[in-house]
Amino acid sequence: MASPDALYVALDLFDRPSLVAIMRERALPPNVITLVKIAANSPDAIADAVARTGRSPTELRTASIFYIRQVMWTAGADSYRILGVAPEAPHPRIAEQVRWLMKWLHPDVAGQEVGPETTARVLRAWETLKTADRRKNYHRLLRQTQPKRTGSTRQGRALGIVQRPVPWVMRGDRKSGLRTGFGLVERAATLAGLVVAAIRARSTRLLTPGSGAKSPDLDPIKSSGQPKVRGSVEAELVENR
């Protein structure tokens, strides 16, 4: 399944900031330029985002900036990630992304949202990808410095490094913006909760007086052949019934 649009990913992170660590390990979603345009106060981009999600302009801009700062501009991010483009992106697309980043990073627009060191970091990233020769050399450098591994990477297939798929599921309806979430993580947590609840329910039935059944012996001491001294937990459970 294709990754959801960057706008919905940013809104999901805005609603659930605890996902930031997971998102930092994932490849960037499509259309990150939408977030950059919103951060740069593009009237057209903001109006389109409001129509698509039903969220306020303030929410949209805050969510976009939060995603850029927390996911794109992490420590150790490569030049592609800093600029918010895929490693296989064509040169005109990268140049357009840089233009919009610089519009946002202009002091009259960004104000105190970002510092001069961030602007310098973006410019350094652009310098490494500015020409075909520099980009080729940068790819070679990344292949030498980034280990190949099965799992998430930030360089992508263009650099010969395997990326793992993103387990997204769509949540909500179209009016609320089809917010996205990391469904596999949530499903695993739900399943674990159901298993624990089932085990507790079974233990309760086995401990009920007159049931004729004995509680399962899960004591690691007894199972190892050592003498066992039963605690008071099971007795208290029986007495409280």
Describe the structure.
The chain starts with 5 loop residues before the first helix and ends with a helix. It has 13 helices and 2 strands; from the N terminus they run H-H-H-H-H-H-H-H-H-H-E-E-H-H-H. It folds into 2 domains: 6-183, no CATH class; 187-240, no CATH class. The chain has a two-stranded antiparallel sheet with strand order 1-2. The chain is mostly helical.
Low-confidence stretches: 149-182, 211-241
Strand content is under 5%
Distance between the termini: 51 Å
Please give the share of residues in helix. Answer: 55-70%
Tally of distinct domains: 2
Shape: globular
Strand order of the largest sheet: 1-2
Quaternary class: single chain
The total of beta strands comes to 2
Task: Give the C-alpha Rg.
Answer: 26 Å
Mean pLDDT across all residues, rounded? 75
The secondary-structure element order is HHHHHHHHHHEEHHH
Largest sheet: 2 strands, antiparallel
Structural class: mainly alpha
SS field, number of helical segments: 13
Keywords:
241 residues; mainly alpha; two-stranded antiparallel ribbon; 13 helices; 57% helix; 2% strand
Topology overview:
Blueprint: H1 6-15, H2 20-24, H3 32-39, H4 43-53, H5 57-72, H6 79-83, H7 91-105, H8 107-110, H9 116-129, H10 132-145, E1 168-170, E2 180-182, H11 183-206, H12 220-223, H13 233-240
Antiparallel strand pairs: 1-2
Helix pairs in contact: 1-5, 3-5, 3-7, 7-9
